[in-house]
C-alpha cells in the first residue's frame, strides 16, 4: 500500500505573478478613472480619447495620491493633489512650479489587452507579457449569444473561489431551488489536467435530471433534462462552464449556456468575482434576459455570502487544521496544485 500523496492545503494561496488577469469589464473602463487593486498592486484604469484602455500604477510619485481619484486632461492624468501630469506610458510630462521634470518622475504602465469584453492586465515583468497567451471567451462578444454579467468583490482568499467553482456539487446544497438539484451532487465527475497549459477540465454528465428553475424558466422545458456540465479552468484567472441542456430522451433541441467567471485576486483575503451567463437561445426575449440577470445575481450572492462566512471561520481557526478531501474535490485539488506551481515560478 502506498502512502497517500500530500494534498495541497486550503488557501491562503500564493499569488501567481507574470500572468494575465481580468481587471475590469470593458464597459467599466471609460473616460472616468477607475481604481482596482490586483495582486495587491493598485491600478488606475481609463480609456484614451481614441478608445484604448490604459492601466497605470495608482500612486502619484510625488506624495502617492491615488491617480484613480484624480482627473483626465485628454489622454493625460492630472494628479488631484498637486497636479503632476502623466501620459499613457506613465511618464510625468509636467510638474507644478518648475520647468525641469525629475528623471525618476514616472509611474508604471501595465500591459493591457482588451479581448472578449474583458480588460486584461499583465501583473509581473512587462517584458514577459505575451498578448497571444490571453485565454479566450469568444461567446461574450460573438453574434448568436446574449450575455448578462456583473462583478462582486468577496472578502475571501481567491483560492476559496477557485475551490467553489471547481466543485459544483455545492449547487445541490447552496443553490437548491435555483440551479441545484439532487443529481448534481449524486453524479460522479471526470477530471482531466493539462499541466503544461495550466488547464483543468471537470465534467459531470447527467442523463436524466430534474430541471432547476434557472433552466426551466429560461428554456421553457417542463420535464426532466439531460444536463451536461463541462468545466474548463484556465489557471489562474479564467473559468468557463459549458452547459448543455436538452429534454431527457431527445437530443434536440440543445440549449447552450456558457457560464464565465474571471477570478482575480485583489489582495490577501480578497478577490474580484467577475461573472457572466451567455445563452444561445431566446436571444430577443428581454424577459429571459432580465430573469437570468436577476436570478444569477442571486446565485452569485449565495456564493459570496458563503465564502465571506467561510473565510471568517478560517481566519479564526488554530493553525495545522487538516481538511478532508473526497472524489468531488479532484478538480479543485488539481487547480490548487497548478496555482501553487505557477506561484512558485
Ligand atoms: S501627490 Fe500627486 S502631485 Fe502631489
Ligand atoms: Fe456556487
Automatic annotation (TrEMBL):
The UniProt entry, under PROSITE patterns, shows:
RIESKE
Coiled-coil intervals, chain numbering = none
Q: Name one Pfam family in it.
A: Rieske
Which part of the chain is the Rieske domain?
A: 20-121
What keywords were assigned to this record?
2Fe-2S, Iron, Iron-sulfur, Metal-binding, Oxidoreductase
SUPFAM superfamilies per the record? Bet v1-like, ISP domain
- PANTHER family, alphabetized: 3-KETOSTEROID-9-ALPHA-MONOOXYGENASE, OXYGENASE COMPONENT, IRON-SULFUR DOMAIN CONTAINING PROTEIN
What this protein is called in its record is: Rieske 2Fe-2S domain-containing protein
Amino acid at each position: 500500500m502506498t502512502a497517500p500523496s500530500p494534498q495541497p492545503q486550503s488557501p491562503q494561496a500564493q499569488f501567481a505573478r507574470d500572468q494575465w488577469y481580468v481587471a475590469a469589464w470593458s464597459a467599466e473602463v471609460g473616460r472616468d478613472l477607475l481604481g482596482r487593486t490586483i495582486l495587491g498592486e493598485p491600478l488606475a484604469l481609463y480609456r484614451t480619447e481614441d478608445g484604448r484602455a490604459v492601466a497605470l500604477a495608482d500612486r502619484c510619485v510625488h506624495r502617492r495620491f491615488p491617480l484613480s481619484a484624480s482627473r483626465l486632461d485628454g489622454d493625460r492624468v492630472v494628479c488631484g493633489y498637486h497636479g503632476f501630469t502623466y501620459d499613457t506610458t506613465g511618464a510625468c510630462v509636467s510638474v507644478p512650479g518648475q520647468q525641469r521634470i525629475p528623471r525618476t518622475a514616472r509611474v508604471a504602465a501595465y500591459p493591457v489587452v482588451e479581448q472578449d469584453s474583458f480588460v486584461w492586465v499583465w501583473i509581473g515583468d512587462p517584458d514577459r507579457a505575451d498578448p497571444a497567451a490571453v485565454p479566450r471567451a469568444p461567446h461574450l462578444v460573438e453574434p448568436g449569444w446574449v450575455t448578462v454579467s456583473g462583478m462582486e468583490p468577496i472578502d475571501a482568499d481567491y483560492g476559496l473561489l477557485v475551490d467553489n467553482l471547481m466543485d459544483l456539487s455545492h449547487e445541490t446544497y447552496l443553490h437548491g431551488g435555483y440551479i441545484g438539484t439532487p443529481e448534481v451532487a449524486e453524479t460522479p465527475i471526470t477530471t482531466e489536467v493539462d499541466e503544461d497549459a495550466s488547464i483543468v477540465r471537470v465534467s459531470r454528465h447527467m442523463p436524466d435530471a430534474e430541471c432547476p428553475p434557472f433552466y426551466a424558466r429560461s428554456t421553457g422545458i417542463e420535464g426532466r433534462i439531460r444536463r451536461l456540465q463541462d468545466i474548463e479552468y484556465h489557471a489562474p484567472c479564467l473559468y468557463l462552464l459549458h452547459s448543455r441542456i436538452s429534454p431527457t430522451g431527445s437530443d434536440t433541441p440543445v440549449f447552450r449556456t456558457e457560464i464565465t467567471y474571471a477570478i482575480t485576486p485583489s489582495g490577501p483575503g480578497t478577490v474580484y468575482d467577475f461573472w457572466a451567463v451567455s445563452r444561445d437561445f431566446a436571444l430577443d426575449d428581454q424577459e429571459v434576459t432580465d430573469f437570468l440577470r436577476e436570478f444569477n445575481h442571486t446565485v452569485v450572492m449565495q456564493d459570496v455570502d458563503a465564502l465571506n462566512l467561510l473565510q471568517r471561520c478560517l481566519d479564526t481557526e488554530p493553525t495545522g487544521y487538516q481538511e478532508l478531501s473526497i472524489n468531488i474535490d479532484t478538480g479543485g485539488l488539481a487547480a490548487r496544485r497548478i496555482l501553487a506551481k505557477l506561484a512558485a515560478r
